Amino acid sequence: MNKGTVLTSAYFFGVVGDPDNLKKIAHHLTDWHVPEHLNKGHLPHKMYTSIYMVEPLTQAFTNIVERGLVDQVHSYDGSYNNRPKRGNPLTKSLHAGGAAIDLNAATNQFNKVGDMSTELIECFTDVGFHSGAFWKKPKDYMHMQLSKDLFDAQYLRIHGKLPIAA
Ligand SMILES: [Zn+2]
Predict the structure, then answer these.
(1) What is the pLDDT of residue 118?
(2) Which residue segments constitute the domains of the chain, with CATH numbers given?
(3) How many A from CA of 144 to the centre of ligand 1?
(4) What is the whole-number distance in angstroms between the Cα of residue 143 and the centre of ligand 1?
């Protein structure tokens, strides 16, 4: 179910820059207005997120709508957030570059088995996202993040060259 290599914080921030350098990281972030046809239920209408998330999320949200799963989205719980990883204070979370999204946090708490359905998770993994539901430890059911392959492909599409990590 997981497509592609894991996008590590070391590689991602090696490419987009130090997440504490807000001016620099802002070049890789966008105020994304979700297209009208995807403004359904509790799907977000507006997100501050990575520019590399826009196309993959458009596809994932389209999957949710087309597969009739909008009712399973109870809350949008954030994308960009300059913070460390949960349970790993020395490493920045991919959220610090907007390369992840959390949904249905109330019933999918960190390191607990959540109630996110396989069908809903597949709306994201079919596009190439990695789901924290499949991590051995710690579990993070609310969390989907770009795979390295998906990030590389989006970087290439936007910048016309593959990323090089510093
Ligand atoms: Zn998350």
Answers:
(1) 96
(2) 9-159 (3.30.1380)
(3) 6
(4) 4
